[in-house]
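Lecture 7 notes: from sequence to structure.

We start with a single chain of 225 residues. Read the sequence below before looking at the structure.
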Amino acid sequence: MTAKAVVVRDDPDHPDEGFAALYAELPPPRSLEPWLGWARAARPPVLYLGIGTGRIALPLADAGIELVGVDVHPGMLRRLRERRPHLAAHLGRIEDLDLGRRFDLVIVPSNILCTAARLDRAAAHLDRGGRLAFELMNPHWLRATRHPEVRVLAFSETEAAIEVDYHPPGGRRYTQVAQVTLVWPEDLEGFLLKAGLRLLRMTPSVEGDLAESPSFYVEARSAAP
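Now the structure, written as tokens:
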């Protein structure tokens, strides 16, 4: 009999310990690009927003990248510190973030900077001319998806309710329930401009056309003083 999936939620106001457990079980990505290439071209340290349990951050650190991490989830940061006690990591909401310093590069490898408030705070931590590199879920793919592990429960121009299945190597099954704020690729330049950012490039996260990619990567530059 197949074990029932553990339902988890990414809720900054009520952190779900199961969500942290899921990410601790996920294997590292097969490739560190484009994050590693961006980080190697930047002046250290690199600010990593949504650092989580270190699934991407620890391989980056092992590749020689100096990181400063931020996450809102206490369980995520506890696991990160158990794995790498000396990595600088801060607990806090991105919307309220003020580290009192600026960075040449800020990276966000997940759909976190999907609201103006979070994007503003990320941009506020950039040096003049610094770069912000982040990932956004692709609304076009989500609207058309028939992926067996992604279920769209509700969809509008501004947000979607979804369920995503995960099968980590340990054998436990998880289903993440999420309410996702959507940023459409055709609206991206205006979205960035309001935060004082200029779009450098936008690329799909998988090979092929943007419409066929679950997410897309954004690289932007700050013009703030």
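Residues 74-83 form the longest helix (10 residues). Keep this in mind for problem set 3.
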